[in-house]
Amino acid sequence: MYLEQLQLTNYRNYQHLDVDFSPGVNVLLGANAQGKTNLLEAIYVLALTKSHRTHNEKDFINWQATFAKISGTVQKSSGRVPLELLIGKKGKSAKINHLEQAKLSQYVGQLNVILFAPEDLSLVKGAPAVRRRFIDMEFGQMSPRYLYNVSQYKQVLRQRNQYLKQLKYRQADDQTFLGVLSDQLAQYGSAIITQRLDFLTKLEGWAQTLHQDISKGKEKLTFDYVQHLKGQATLKQALQVDTAHEIELGTTLVGPHRDDVRFLVNGKNVQTFGSQGQQRTTALAVKLAEIDLMKAQTGEYPILLLDDVLSELDDARQTHLLKALQHKVQTFLTTTSLSGVAKTMIEAPRVFQIQGGHLKRRTKVNG
Asked: Looking at residue 246, what is its pLDDT?
């Protein structure tokens, strides 16, 4: 698949934009704070209905406007699909083929994207919440069922935490209802864990091959999914054990919302014991592995969004990155200079100059 056209209205510093893209490599060139990352973010939001940069959706709307709109035409093997996302002060609405969708979860998956930015090193070095979000965002694009389970789980988790607080402050005294919520949470949580394990097993296979290639066969990458369950207890059993402690704290202590993924290189936790080079190689291998996994799961290659990453990678890692994308996936690459692009030998990129929220296609790559 590839994004054929994109239209923006009142999106951040873009009041109006209408642009056609190459199915190959598209370079977004410009100085800092001109709108390169905003444009990349708009594509990401069109795909996932949410941003990788902010949780405040009002930030999307140009300060002079009351709404923002992102529209695009996606070319898939099955044909062209028009997409539209309208963002207002009170929420969002989405359309596929000009038909409004009852739920945003029905919309996600029409356009699949993989974002790789310098901060993606936090996938390896960051907190467990970063890795959980990575799993949920990426696997949610491939599986509507997983997206549904996560949505339901979060809803029940909020209800259960609220009720635990009510029990704590004696605003409620009926633990029967807590048991009902625990059963529902265990149902959705167990499904999420099963799906995560399946996703990670497949992703690990693709990532191992890439990691061995980048490390020239010297290192083996493995994944370890970490659950906060004692012994062989099931999630349902675990939710019944620490009820008194949960009431005391007013929060749910076990479940997939607290799980983590460890990345091991030659059996050692790369988060803790890996060098910066090993951490970068691991992050690159995991992100690139998504390309092939998404193709295997959905039948379509995703779109790759690279936000100023060439400057963060050495020559060897740049080479592996470009080998993975050349002639395979549509790519959007932000940069402040074309020198790095020329060095990587990308064939026939389409270059757009961005300044102050205005975009102009360059007819020459050099000069």
From this structure: 93
Measuring CA to CA, which residue among 33, 30, 38 is closest to residue 59?
38
Annotated binding site: 30-37
HEC string for 75-143: EECCEEEEEEEEEECCEEEEEECCEECCCHHHCCCCCCEEEECHHHHHHHHCCHHHHHHHHHHHHHHHC
Give the mean pLDDT of 117-140. Answer: 89
Domain at 290, CATH number:
1.20.1050.90
Phi, psi of 252 (to 5 degrees): -85, 125
> Per the annotation, where are the binding residues for ATP?
30-37
Q: Where residue 2 falls among pLDDT bands split at 50, 70, 90? A: very high
How many structural domains compose the chain? Answer: 2
Same domain assignment for residues 26 and 90? yes
Max avg pLDDT among 136-140, 202-206, 216-220: 202-206
For residue 32, the 8-state DSSP code is T
User: Looking at the structure, do residues 170 and 288 belong to the same domain, yes or no?
Assistant: yes
Same-domain status, 94 and 164: no
Q: Could you report the per-residue pLDDT of 131-152, keeping only the tens digit for each? A: 999 999 999 999 999 999 999 9
pLDDT for 231: 64
| Strands 331-335 and 260-265, bridge-based pairing | unpaired
- Of 244, 278, 299, at which residue does a domain stop? 299
- Tell me, yes or no, whether 22 and 131 share the same domain: no
**134 and 59 belong to one structural domain:** no
Please give the sequence-ordered ranges of beta strands (E in DSSP) within the chain, or none if there are none: 2-11, 14-20, 25-29, 67-76, 79-88, 91-96, 99-100, 113-116, 221-226, 260-265, 268-269, 303-307, 331-335, 350-355, 358-362
How many Cβ atoms from other residues are within 10 Å of residue 157's Cβ? 20
Containing structural domain, residue 235:
120-299
Residues 163 and 275 both lie in one domain? yes
- Domain of residue 77, CATH code: 3.40.50.300
